[in-house]
Amino acid sequence: MPPAFKRILLKLSGEALCGPESYGIHVPTLESIARQIREVHSTGVQVGVVLGGGNIFRGIAGSAQGMDRASADYMGMIATVMNAIAMQDALENQGVHTRVQTAIEMADIAEPYIRRRAIRHLEKGRVVIFAGGTGNPYFTTDTTAALRAMEVHAEIIMKGTKVDGVFDRDPIKHPDAVLLRELTYMDVLERGLSVMDSTAITLCMDNDLPILVFNLTKEGNILRVVQGEPLGSIVSVKADKKESK
């Protein structure tokens, strides 16, 4: 089946790298995600990746415990760089040429984020991992994903989670929670659904960038969603609203 997209932005939380552990990087899980990205990359799809850092340090959590919010956020950004380097290593061990670009300058270990260079890497078939957040405190990696996706002209943000998509309630606490297959950006904002933070959702809404939320824990799902299989939940402007513009 041919891919449904030419260029995607894959958003993964830092916790996705924990696997069954509660902290850090679980190497078998890291390798599994790298295999899935390699499968997608081998179809010719251009892949950008944004990783969170919550498996190492979360700025909001540090702030809640009394740390200065800006300092805590910078620590969280550095955690995303650690995850990015780990993912780069896992991908290159599987033969996938990868570049890490960081919004916080770290010349010895990663390239600085330069939009045109990132696009060129993607065009040359390299996976680009965007680390260091936006380079500014008070912004999440959700916002980073939305911003980078628009800057490199990705067609969609694909957000990998531990559940099958967006539910009306927490499916872990409520077994009768209903999976919502199609939503508008306003649905997400008005109902306070856990898709991405409100800044990221608003950026995507203003630029008509769709968001697909799917289950990352089932190996092969990244390839399935790239090929257009109806998995997960899609957040976009519905067809009837497009026609009414």
CATH superfamily: Acetylglutamate kinase-like
Number of domains: 1
Radius of gyration from CA coordinates:
17 Å
Give the proportion of residues in helices: 25-40%
**CA(first)-CA(last) distance:** 33 Å
Mean pLDDT: 92
The total strand number stands at 11
Provide the CATH top-level class.
Answer: Alpha Beta
- Estimate the global geometry from the Cα principal axes: globular
Order of helices and strands: EHEHHEEHEHEEEEHHEHEH
Low-pLDDT runs of 5+ residues are 239-245
Q: In DSSP terms, counting alpha (H) and pi (I) runs of 4 or more, how many helices? A: 9
Strand content: 15-25%
Can you offer a commentary on this structure?
The structure is a single chain. Helix content is 38%, strand content 18%. It has 245 residues and is of the alpha/beta class. It has one domain: Acetylglutamate kinase-like (Carbamate kinase), CATH 3.40.1160. Strands 4-3-5-2-1-6-10-11-9 form a nine-stranded mixed beta sheet, sandwiched between helices. Strands 7-8 form a two-stranded antiparallel sheet. The longest helix is centred in the N-terminal third of the chain and has 25 residues, at 69-93. The relative contact order is 0.16. Residues 239-245 have low confidence and may be disordered.
